[in-house]
Design goal:
two-stranded parallel sheet, 3% helix, 151 residues, mainly beta, Rcpt_L-dom_sf, EC 2.7.10.1, nucleotide-binding, single chain, 24 nucleotide stem-loop, u2 snrnp hairpin iv. U2 a', Chain A, ATP binding
Length: 151
């Protein structure tokens, strides 16, 4: 399910009152048809709601995503379990965080790598690498014109 340009999920409508992304039971036991990868390689923020990804027998790399780096609300529910078991590892350049096995499939971290001075998003680990307060989904520099998306 490639959505290579999806950067922000705003979560204005959520499933079951709490999930902005919900993926479940995407396989057919009697055939080879199944969801194998999401490849949301540009997804860096879910503004409202959590994540539920369960019982997708062939879906790989869901446990290699740092969903806390993507979900804005620290109290949002994140359920990721019982998905693909025979999955290839992340490419070594991804340091264990990826949407797929290739070097182009690395997850872009925009929150968990930030210095404490940054207000939620950054483009690097140093205190002078904070995103502007109006940015959603991260940034490429400190100016409001460097935002990947606006709040």
């Amino acid at each position: 399910l490639p959505l290579p340009n999806l950067r922000v999920v705003r979560g204005t409508q959520v499933y079951d009152g709490k999930f902005a992304i919900f993926v479940m039971l995407n396989y057919n036991t009697n055939s080879s048809h199944a969801l194998r990868q999401l490849r949301f390689t540009q997804l860096t923020e879910i503004l409202s709601g959590g994540v539920y990804i369960e019982k997708n027998d062939k879906l790989c790399h869901m446990d290699t995503i740092d969903w806390r780096d993507i979900v804005r609300d620290p109290g949002a529910e994140i359920v990721v379990k019982d998905n693909g078991r025979s999955c290839p590892p992340c490419h070594e350049v991804c340091k264990g965080r990826c949407w797929g096995p290739g070097p182009e499939d690395c997850q872009t971290l925009t929150k968990t790598i930030c210095a404490p001075q940054c207000n939620g998003h950054c483009f690097g680990p140093d205190p002078n690498q904070c995103c502007h307060d109006e940015c959603a989904g991260g940034c490429s520099g400190p100016q409001d014109t460097d935002c990947f998306a606006c709040r």
